[in-house]
Amino acid sequence: METPLVLHAERLTKRYGRRTALTDCDLMIPRGHVVGLVGPNGAGKSTLLQLACGLLAPTAGTLSVLGSRPAANAAHLARVGFVAQDTPVYASFSIADHLRMGAWLNPSWDPALAKRRIAEVGLDPAQKAGRLSGGQRAQLALAIAAAKRPELLIFDEPAAALDPLARKGFMRGLVEFVGELGASAVLSSHLLSDVEQVCDYLVVLCDSRIQIAGPVRDLLASHHRIAGDPARMAAAVEVIWAERGRALVRGDAAARDGAAARDAEPVTLEELVLAYMSRAAGAGAAPRASAAVAR
């Protein structure tokens, strides 16, 4: 029996005129994960998430979300909750107005969940959204997205502009909602601390291409940091990044020339992400390195 997929992309490409934001992206993400989507600014993260929400159409390739074309119909829209980077709200609307609008637009709206969350984070339903702080706006947007009771929550760097305390509160709320709803989630963030805190699945997107993707635990277990000459590494080992006699490799750490490298060491999530980002940028890449996608 095949594992249901929350997102499935095949040769997904998106161009804006002469600029290519995504190139031939293949990606298969099973349901039940909190996915961290990381990469440098301009890598195509927001484009991928907007495609997943149906806000953009692909230039080429295919993309399915929860088994259907993104935003295929009203029923499919109700299955996806989206919180954009600037956590948009209507300044002249009160918090209560936002909740009433959410109930009107979403057939599966859970008013009890929305009211409970607003109370938990100390928001006054009568307050105008235009007078809220950045952290409060983010909490309001999160409450509205979750009260749809979606199967998938998508977050496009929603905590990027928040101070550390507000960001911590937002991330805590995200984890609580994912658990309560039994939903999957995709979180785009340039802060690896956020990804480490809440995500169990990683997608690295650089230079408009998927560099690697898979469960965080499996990715960390399959990569090692070693010292030695990359040219003498065994064929079973893929050198992701190398510089000054040290390398980050993927594969069987034992299947290498013992004379060329000392004992392998585990890598951190930050080292893993930076190695793939460096390789995509052409910095410190080894001759044998090639694009890799783990599923």
CATH class category of the largest domain: Alpha Beta
CATH architecture of the largest domain: 3-Layer(aba) Sandwich
The CATH superfamily of the largest domain is identified as P-loop containing nucleotide triphosphate hydrolases
Kindly report the average pLDDT value: 87
Regarding quaternary structure, how should these chains be classified? single chain
CA radius of gyration is 21 Å
Q: State the end-to-end distance.
A: 16 Å
Would you kindly provide a brief summary of this structure?
The chain has 295 residues and is of the alpha/beta class.
Structure characterization notes:
This protein has 295 residues and is an alpha/beta fold. The chain folds into 2 domains: 209 residues, 3-Layer(aba) Sandwich (Rossmann fold); 60 residues, no CATH class. Helices cover 31% and strands 28% of the residues. The protein is built from 9 helices and 13 strands. The strands form 3 sheets. A 6-stranded mixed β-sheet has the order 5-6-7-3-8-9, sandwiched between helices. It has a 4-stranded antiparallel β-sheet with strand order 11-12-10-13. The chain has a 3-stranded antiparallel β-sheet with strand order 2-1-4, covered by helices on one side. A hairpin with a 2-residue loop joins strand 8 and strand 9. The protein is globular, with a radius of gyration of 21 Å. 40% of the residues are buried. Keywords: ATP-binding, Nucleotide-binding, Transport. This is ABC transporter ATP-binding protein. GO terms for molecular function: ATP binding. Pfam families: ABC_tran.
